[in-house]
Amino acid sequence: GSAEAGCVEAIENLISMCENGEGVPRDYHKAAEWREKLISELKQRYEQLPCFNNAKLLISAMSGLGRAYYDLLDQEHSVAIYREMITLAEKFDADYPGEWFLKMQVFGYHDLAYAVKGQVRVEEQTPGKILSLDIIGFIECHYKALKTAEKLNEKTKNDSQARLILAMSYY
Question: What is the pTM of this model?
């Protein structure tokens, strides 16, 4: 159908159907597969027409896929997606200055921290040295979230939403 052909709206509908069990059996793994397809299509769309809205759609979709993998306890893929999302959000922030991509970087670092922490939980049987390195990664992600939130707060001249994001970054 149109989802297989790459229609973004059809793919989004299939993701929702798979996640909610609407007309198909509920299947979070299948929804994650469709999210992968969605990101592929949105990357192509951005390459063909680079603009703020296409960049925003791509970053939002990547955030959703990172969360989907996290919920499926697939921290390895979740970490990889969040790292790629943050890198793209940094690039897009340079291309389209404003607050949106900075906010997504802060949220991406927070989510990445918990995905890294999730790796620690999944790998509890590993030697303490590996566990320590993962905890350092967790702390580093929170630090980067805090620094990015401070940058956002400065950029927005201390607006209330930026202050809230900054305050959340201290926890």
Answer: 0.83
